[in-house]
Write a structure and sequence with these properties.
The structure holds 2 protein chains of 2 kinds.
Chain A (H helix, E strand, L loop, with lengths): L1 H33 L12 H29 L6 H23 L4 H30 L1
Helix pairs in contact in A: 1-2, 1-4, 2-3, 2-4, 3-4
Chain B lengths: L1 E8 L5 H7 L6 H10 L5 E6 L3 E8 L2 H16 L8 E4 H12 L11 H15 L5 H20 L9 H13 L6 E5 L3 H12 L4 E6 L2 H11 L2 E4 L12 E4 L10 H9 L6 E5 L16 E5 H38 L6 H6 L7
Parallel strand pairs in B: 5-6, 5-8, 6-7, 8-9, 9-10
Antiparallel strand pairs in B: 1-3, 1-4, 2-3
Classes of the chains: A mainly alpha, B alpha/beta.
């Protein structure tokens, strides 16, 4: 139970940080391309480090989420958590798609950053709805 | 006690005059010591850099102190300076030192090298025994003011020359440059200077390609790099992170057509292109390629100008900080003599009273 919860929480933390690194990458990339450097540019980490951080965080998050979901399945009692399980598997597929695109289709760091931001927005926008549905089911 | 400052700088004197009054490092302790013993003066610090020669002193009477300083300088150099020397006393003298250490009086506004130079001059004078409680307090306060100004304003932000902007951008893209490879296309003076600045930041390797192989070999040897025949530059491109162009070719040397296939072979690695040539060596459209960041001489100059404009906007805030410290220091000075920690330390036995 502990491993399931902790690995899932850390996995979502990694996805959150990957999204933040993605935003910083896109901001910096835009400023570098347009030669229009604002004060925020000088406060951001180097763009190459951001690309590496973005990719590694997605990988770490994906591995941890895999462990979390695996532990969840091993715990049984799947019927009462069907919504949550479906959502978690959806998130797993989403990030799995990004990783496979990076691996097989040599996704550029820019597209990787965009996808991590979009994925994070999807996860955050559905999170509250899923929590609501789970709580309703529990009541 | 009064603080006085007599000196000349790039604002008041041409280089011919400045070099006449310049003081070498080895002579500084002796001159500071002799100045501090002059009649009418009690403490002295001498700052001598390529842009300024300034004498700071503490004196009981400002007028006498200024005269003593003027006499000393004229006797030492055999020249009175023909009115190139400024003379600041009291608050203006304190204000001048604070402005100098903050880089507000420098040729390049906001540069930080002067702070190190003044610190060194103060240490030399202190070790020579030429400073006392007033100048010790003044210079310590000056260094604190410089720190506060640098922390709380943007006076040192950004780079203000084309070469330093290029190096700065490279660091914004790659972080540490010690695993970066640089390629120079065209062994010109400007590219050599820029590559030299990058090398000073520790780039890993340097390639030089030039129409004349001999010139490429010369520069490569000078920079510890590898010379290439100009036609072969693409062969070693795979490992290159920073590409500098400064050929005299009348057409674009690096085009989208050439670069796009090369970029595909270097997964995820950004490429920073610095175009220092006129006519330009890089086709502007390569900036649209994924991972390629192209800066020509105008865009680098524009960033340098922007940084300078930001620094200029900060002058008012810096002056306000400086004025607050000048007022506080003047109040301390006017309050008169208190316990002298320096004198206390040197007393035999050091018995606390």
């Amino acid at each position: 139970m502990e491993l399931h919860a902790s690995s899932s929480i850390v996995a979502y933390g990694a996805f959150l940080l990957a999204g933040v690194a993605g935003v910083m990458y896109l901001v910096q990339e835009r400023q570098l391309k347009t030669h229009n450097l604002h004060s925020i540019f000088f406060r951001l980490p180097p763009i190459r480090d951001l690309a590496v951080a973005n990719r590694r965080l997605i990988l770490v998050g994906f591995v941890l989420l895999t462990v979390g979901i695996g532990c969840g399945f091993a715990m049984g009692n799947l019927a009462s958590h069907s919504t949550k399980i479906a959502w978690s598997v959806g998130v797993w597929l989403l990030y799995g798609f990004i990783l496979s695109a990076e691996w097989w289709h040599r996704l550029s760091p820019r597209r990787g950053a965009w996808l991590s931001v979009v994925a994070l927005c999807i996860v955050l926008s559905t999170l509250w709805g899923i929590r609501f549905l789970t709580e309703q089911a529990a009541v | 006690m009064e603080i006085i400052c007599v000196g000349l700088s790039h604002h008041t004197a041409p280089i011919e005059l400045r070099e006449k009054f310049a003081i070498g490092d080895s002579a500084l302790p002796d001159i500071a010591n002799r100045l501090a013993r002059e009649a009418g003066l009690s403490e002295a610090v001498v700052v001598s850099t390529c842009n300024r020669v300034e004498f700071y002193a503490a004196a009981e009477d400002a007028r006498e102190g200024v005269e003593a300083l003027g006499r000393f300088v004229a006797e030492r150099s055999g020249d009175s300076g023909d009115g190139a020397f400024f003379r600041h006393t009291s608050q203006r003298g304190i204000n001048h030192l604070f402005r100098v250490v903050c880089g507000l009086d420098s040729m390049v506004l906001g540069e930080t090298e002067i702070l190190g130079q003044v610190k060194k001059a103060y240490q030399v004078a202190q070790q020579a025994g030429a400073t006392g409680r007033h100048l010790n307090k003044l210079f310590q306060r000056a260094f604190n003011v410089a720190k506060e100004v640098r922390t709380n304003t943007n006076i040192t932000r950004g780079s203000v020359s084309v070469g330093s902007v290029a190096v700065d951008l490279a660091e914004r893209i790659f972080g540490r440059l010690n695993d970066c490879h640089v390629m120079i296309l065209g062994a010109g003076e400007t590219s050599e200077m820029t590559a030299g600045a990058l090398q000073a930041r520790g780039v890993k390797a340097m390639f030089v390609a030039n129409r004349s192989y001999e010139r490429a070999a010369q520069l490569a040897e000078k920079m510890g790099g590898k010379a290439l025949h100009f036609e072969d530059w693409a062969g070693d491109f795979r490992d290159v992170d920073i590409l500098i162009g400064s050929t005299s070719a009348p057409h674009h040397v690096v085009t989208v057509e050439k670069l796009a296939p090369l970029m595909r072979s270097r997964r995820d690695r950004p490429l920073f292109c610095i175009d220092l040539a006129v006519p330009r060596d890089f086709e502007p459209a390569i900036n649209d390629l994924e991972g390629v960041y192209l800066y020509d001489i105008d865009s680098l100059q524009q960033i340098a100008d922007q940084s300078m404009a930001v620094r200029r906007q900060e002058i008012t805030i810096c002056e306000q900080i400086i004025q607050r410290h000048v007022t506080e220091f003047s109040e301390w000075l006017a309050a008169g003599p208190g316990p002298n920690p320096a004198a206390f330390r040197t007393q035999p036995g050091g018995v606390k009273s």
